[in-house]
């Protein structure tokens, strides 16, 4: 029974040591890990935008018309001046 208790104690110590050492590693390297994750996310976003942009532009561009009208629309005829005159 004593052997079983010793094995459990050693296992508990090993798990506790692993948790403390892992937490220490993360705490000491958090800035580097955050920067690496930010760079990877920026690259993934840039690649996704580059891949999606041509298809988005193709759908957004209107077709060129085969016939066009005049450059300036005709002015409707009125009985008075188009700009109000001051007295």
Written description of the protein model:
The N and C termini lie far apart (115 Å). The chain has 2 helices and no strands. By secondary structure, the chain is mainly α. It has a domain at 22-55. The mean pLDDT is 83.
Question: How would the blueprint of this fold be written?
Answer:
Blueprint: H1 2-28, H2 30-60
Q: Which tags fit this structure?
A:
87 residues, mainly alpha, 2 helices, 67% helix, 0% strand
Largest sheet: none
Q: How many angstroms does the end-to-end distance come to?
A: 115 Å
Q: How many E strands?
A: 0
Estimated helix fraction: 55-70%
Uncertain regions spanning at least 5 consecutive residues: none
What's the short version?
This protein is mainly α. It has helices at residues 2-28, 30-60. It is built from 2 helices and no strands.
């Amino acid at each position: 029974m004593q052997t079983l208790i010793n094995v459990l104690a050693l296992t508990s110590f090993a798990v506790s040591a692993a948790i403390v050492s892992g937490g220490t590693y993360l705490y000491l390297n958090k800035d580097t890990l955050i920067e690496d994750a930010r760079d990877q996310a920026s690259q993934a976003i840039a690649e996704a935008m580059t891949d999606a942009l041509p298809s988005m532009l193709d759908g957004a561009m209107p077709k060129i018309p085969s016939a066009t009208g005049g450059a300036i629309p005709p002015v409707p005829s009125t009985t008075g001046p188009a700009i109000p005159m001051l007295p």
